[in-house]
Every structure is written in structure tokens, then in C-alpha cells.
Amino acid sequence: MSVVVVTGANSGFGLAATLAFARNGDQVYATIRDPSRAGSLTEAASNSDLDIQIEQLDVTRPETFPAFVADITAAAGRVDVLVNNAGILRAGAFEDISENTLRLVMETNLFGPLLLTRAVLPTMRAQQAGLIIMISSLSGIAGLPGDVAYSASKYALEGATEALRHEVDRWGIRLALVEAGMYATGIFAASLPDDAVLPVDYPADSPYRPLIEYRLRALRARMPEAFDPSQVGELLVEIAQSDEARLRWPADAVAERVLGTLFAHDDAGRDEFLRMVSDTDWWSAGRDAP
Ligand SMILES: NC(=O)c1ccc[n+]([C@@H]2O[C@H](COP(=O)([O-])OP(=O)(O)OC[C@H]3O[C@@H](n4cnc5c(N)ncnc54)[C@H](OP(=O)(O)O)[C@@H]3O)[C@@H](O)[C@H]2O)c1
User: Fold this and answer.
1) Which of 56, 147, 150, 178 is most exposed, with minimal Cβ within 10 Å?
2) pTM check: above 0.85
3) 27: Cβ below 6 Å to ligand 1?
């Protein structure tokens, strides 16, 4: 039985991951920024007779992370898996999104996962094992118009994760990036309200209006093809049970096709290249510097 921490556990992938790990017999700490929104989670857990611990955690409040991790470690004795899932999407042309929006997306999708990871690493180093799963996106390997804030946050998350993995592998700590296509979750609600083509507060006089309207209409048209988030929950359990040192895990056929097309090398070839360039295999193997 593993001790698993999931952020943003009240909906979408976070809810699916929480239920999948709990069904697998793991001890899950499901974190939610606003416990009054725990309804779907508590209902699904009680319908399936699953025992899930709900904790309050806002990923934009890093000052709370050390005490949060200390409490979990004291209660459960360890943290085996951290799922950095909480995230937001704010669509819009770069000139049209406010600085506050840009910063909020980065705080939520980048600084939250990174600083929570940093808070959990001492526990994982002490136990000489651990897995940190970052929920990334195809927007983290391909930038599209209207997606600057979200893409910036996910690209940065990808780079940080790729850089961190060989700093911590000597302690048996693995990092995984989950690359997901399009799923029917709540994330589109803020950017793609049902009753408007554009977000309600979108600048009326924006020169980018036709472009953003077009992109959002295309996104909306594709919604019926969106995948079921429960398959991502099951993938996360598979990653936790795997002993593969793989970094990027496509969640679906679309993600697999995009990854295959975008990376000239496969992931293993890319990793081999990066390891050759950084020349730190001695570190990963737990040896002294040559
Ligand atoms: N759906 C897709 O197609 C897709 C594709 C690729 C990647 N992703 C990624 O998947 C992850 C989960 O998104 P989702 O699609 O499952 O959407 P979702 O249903 O909207 O779930 C996002 C979760 O993040 C939480 N959250 C947002 N801000 C937070 C904060 N400051 N502190 C703590 N929790 C916060 C939300 O809580 P509230 O309910 O309180 O807002 C919600 O529980 C995100 O990282 C997203 O980028 C999604």
C-alpha cells in the first residue's frame, strides 16, 4: 500500500486519480483548495465504499506546504507518490490577457507543483524512494495561438521536471510527466463558458477577436471527442506500479501521436542525448565525481 497525495482532487483528473489509487488499496490524501467543493469526491468515495482522507491545500500558497507535508509524513509515516494535478487554463491572445492572469496561471501550474515537490523531496530522500507525477499537457510540448499563458506554464513544468529527474534519481526518486490530449473535465469552464463563444470578460475591441473566437469555436466543436478522465486515473496507478524510468507518459492515442510527431527522437533517445550532454551518470549512479 502506497501513501499518495493528489492536488486538485475534487474534479477531473484529480478526482479520477484519487478514486483509482483508493480502489488500488492505496492510502490517498486528496487535497482540495475549497473543502466546500468536495461533494463529487465524497459522494463517489462513499458510493464505492472507499476510505479517502480529504485535506485543504491551495497550490498558490507555498508557505503552507512544509507544514502540510510534515503533517502527512507524521500521520502516514511516508509519502510514496505526489500527483501534481491542480491546474487552470486561461485562453486568450497574449496582448489581451492581464498580467494578473498570466501570473495566476504560472503560480498555479508551475510554482505550485515545483514548490510542493521541493517540500516533499526531503521525505522521499529519507525513505530512498518516491514518485512525483506532473500532470502536463500537449500544450507543454507544442504552443498554439490563444494558449500563451497555459503553454508557458506547462513548457516550464516540462523543462523543470526533465532537469530535476537526474538530480534526485540517486535516491530512488522518479519523476513522470503525463501528456494528455483533450478530456471532458471542468478545466474548460473558465475559458469556454457554455453560453458564450469568448470568456465573458474578453475585451470587446480586441484586434485578436476573430482568431480567438475561431480557436475556441474549434475547441468547442471537438468537445464531443474528449476522452473520459477516468482513463488518466488508471494510467497514474500504472505509472506508480511500473519500474520503468520513463519520463513522458502519453495518456491516449492522440497524445501518443503528437509526441511521436513532435520529438524527432523517441523519449529514450532524447534522454540518452541529454545524459551524454550533461555527463552526470556518475551522480545518478550514486558515485563520487570523476
Ligand atoms: N482536461 C484536459 O483536457 C487536460 C489536458 C491536459 C492536461 N490537463 C491538466 O490536467 C490537470 C487537471 O485538470 P482537469 O482537466 O482535471 O480540470 P478540472 O476538472 O478543472 O480540475 C482542476 C483542479 O485543479 C484545482 N485547482 C485550481 N486551482 C487550484 C489551486 N490554486 N489550488 C488547488 N487546487 C486548484 C481545481 O479546484 P477548483 O474546483 O476549486 O477550481 C480542480 O480541482 C491540470 O493540470 C490541467 O492542466 C487537462
Assistant:
1) 56
2) yes
3) no
Is residue 153 within 6 Å of ligand 1 at its C-beta? Answer: no
pLDDT tens per residue, range 138-148? 999 999 999 99
- For residue 100, give the C-alpha cell: 494578473
- The side-by-side arrangement of strands in the sheet containing 3-6 is 53-56, 27-32, 3-6, 81-84, 130-135, 173-179, 248-250
Task: Please indicate, yes or no, if residue 288 is contained in any of the structural domains.
Answer: no
pLDDT tens digits for range 55-90: 999 999 999 999 999 999 999 999 999 999 999 999
Asked if residue 19 belongs to a domain, the reply is yes
Q: How many structural domains is the chain composed of?
A: 1
Dihedral in degrees, nearest 10, Cα atoms 86, 158, 237, 17: 10
Q: Which residue has the cell 538530480?
A: 167
| Identity of residue 241 | Q
Dist. CA 84 → ligand 1 center (Å): 10
- The answer to whether position 113 is within a domain reads yes
Residue 273 domain-assigned (yes or no): no
